[in-house]
Amino acid sequence: MNLFKLILCLFLAPAAALAQGDSIRLLVAAPAGGGTDAVMRILVKEAGPLLNQSFVVQNNAAAGGIVVMEQMIRGTPNGKTLVAMSNGSITAIPHLMRTPFTADDYIPLLGISSAPYVVCAAPGFPATNAKEFVAVLKANPDKYTIGTDGGAGWLATQRALRALGATVRNISYKGAAEIVVSFLGGHIDLYSGSVSTILQSAKADKAKCYLLTTADRSPALPLAAGLADFDIAAEETPLWRIVLAPRGTPPEVAARLEAALAKAADSPAMRQFHTDFGEKFVVFRGDELKARLKREYDGLGQVARSLGITP
Question: Which domain holds residue 171?
Fold first, then answer.
């Protein structure tokens, strides 16, 4: 099943199937159709029966996740409104623009999946492998346009390309679903985003994917090189996803939500998604999750400052 059909089936699933409990509103800081949206729809479909509650998914990718964060933290902290997003909304966006929230305003419930951002070009791009691809970019500084999310994906890509000595012109989009449409339509030269969103196009020879932002290669994209292939493994930045609750959520409510989401994340459906779309299956929670967020926030802050960016 391709990504579009998967999301369509999940989107059309009856929201009232679990009528015995109050519904939980999940604000997804990504447009419908992308990898983050797909992961979260599977997750809450599996978590609903465990909580005896239905989830209502609402997508709003505006301002890199700032809008949904405001909605969540201004609401009543009773576990009825949660936010789901890719990691960059809270580890990268605060370094790029002023945000009305800090790490004290939310409770990290769950972190899931790990995947690289991938840089792809059209089939006619004059390179047969990753090293030739980088050589073309270096020989033509700022010639090629690249579509990114303008947040973590942009910083991750810039981090890798700068370490390789290559420069491109960035065009910002709301998320991978928009980037891939523009890329396949020939409006931009390069795609930078999640593997899951571009994978079917790569398999259909509509895209050639050359470079990953993780140290290791991905079995799903054998042509793409990891940063370890260029001896810059320390510059890696993965893509992952997170579910948050607002500060002030009662501890017993937060614990119940965390436990159900963690169990749902370990479901066969979630594992199958990661297998199908080239993502590594991992689950982060508790102190490990908080420490991971802190490390990434600090690391991307250094990248932003090196680019001369101040919020």
Answer: 115-235
